[in-house]
Specification:
The protein is of the alpha+beta class. The chain is built from 10 helices and 7 strands. The strands form 2 sheets. It has a 5-stranded mixed sheet with strand order 2-4-5-7-6, with helices on one face. A two-stranded antiparallel sheet has the order 1-3.
Length: 343
């Protein structure tokens, strides 16, 4: 049989409440100025009915009725519970006192209405303390949940940012290698662009926000390196419009959408293209990506790929209620528009 879990804090506060109540009652009943044995016994017998009533209320009625919104059953039970101390008070001074303390003559002097009044008082005070303790524990629990959620979001963002496409790195190195074999003057420039990109990934991946100018520079290098691999680089258009000053953005956020255009684009046709535009108006950034695609490509058949899903997840975590993403497909063109409220 599994024993119920004991709430140590609740138990300690419960004992403290009755210790204080015992001390106050003992002072009230000690009429000679000093505490005698009979005063201690009388206080014990007086408080015992209320201890039983408060315990039933705290450990049964609150968790099983009130906490479960069974208000009618709670109200009826409370009505009966308030009447219960009269019988317990009579038993305490009539039978229990004779059995436990036969050498003392002890008489209960309070009327049934007074006993009910004391019961209501103890129930009100103990309930107030119980609700205060529960509220405080609830606040602590919410804070812990908020901290865990923050840590979870940070971990997810870090993991999503770390998903840099290795194919781009391999293709860029192959392009640079081919240029180096031809002893082209482009090789050092391409190495510098790739080096700047890798340094950006390493240095900025851990940060929550980076300057928009740094993110745009990374994207520009990405586009330029891709264009070097194409037979006709003029089919790729990259436009930056608007004023960039001190705006900030989550690092490596836009690259997923841009990379997707290059990954699935069909540039074999004469009218094929990739068009990327970043428009910045104050704190509002709009990214549009358009590209022609292969009609029978897996993307056409299966829909949005993992790169876009990755980016959507990052948007939901980093910019909740501060972005809109629209993806449309025409007969042979994909169009994506992302609007983002920057920091």
């Amino acid at each position: 049989m599994k024993l119920p879990k004991i709430n140590v804090k609740k138990l300690l506060s419960y004992f403290l409440f009755w210790a204080v109540s015992f001390y106050i009652a003992l002072e009230a009943f000690s009429r000679t100025g000093e505490v005698r044995t009979i005063d201690v016994i009388y206080t014990f017998l007086f408080l015992l009915p209320f201890v039983i009533v408060v315990t039933i209320h705290s450990y049964h009625f609150i968790p099983n009725y009130l906490a479960k919104s069974r208000f009618w059953l709670y109200s009826l039970s409370m009505f009966l519970l308030i009447l219960f101390p009269m019988s317990l008070y009579h038993i305490s001074f009539r039978y229990l006192s004779e059995w436990l303390f036969p050498n003392y003559y002890l008489v209960g002097v309070y009327t049934p209405l007074e006993v009910i009044g004391f019961a209501i008082l103890f129930l009100l005070v103990s309930s107030s303390l119980e609700f205060a303790r529960s509220w405080f524990e609830g606040v602590q629990a919410k804070n812990r949940v908020a901290e865990l959620e923050t840590e979870k979001v940070a971990s997810e963002l870090k993991a999503l940012r770390a998903q840099v496409n290795p194919h781009f790195l391999f293709n860029s190195l192959n392009t640079i290698y081919n240029e180096a074999l031809k002893k082209s003057q482009k090789a050092p420039e391409l190495i510098l662009k790739l080096s700047e990109m890798l340094r950006y990934v390493v240095d900025k991946m851990e940060e929550d926000q980076v300057l928009l100018t740094e993110e745009v520079a990374y994207i520009r290098n990405f586009v330029e390196l891709h264009k070097e691999r194409l037979n006709d680089p003029t089919k790729v258009h990259f436009i930056l419009d608007g004023e960039i000053s001190s705006q900030k953005i989550a690092p490596l956020l836009l690259i997923n959408f841009i990379e997707n255009s290059f990954k699935h684009a069909d540039l074999t046709d004469e009218n094929a293209f990739i068009a990327i535009k970043i428009l910045v108006l104050g704190k509002q950034l709009t990214l549009t990506c358009s590209n022609t695609f292969f009609i029978d490509s897996p993307r056409t058949q299966n829909g949005v790929g993992s790169g876009i899903e990755n980016a959507k997840r990052r948007l939901a975590l980093a910019y909740p209620n501060r972005h809109s993403l629209e993806i449309k497909k025409s007969e042979s063109t994909y169009n994506l528009e992302l609007k983002l409220e920057l920091d």
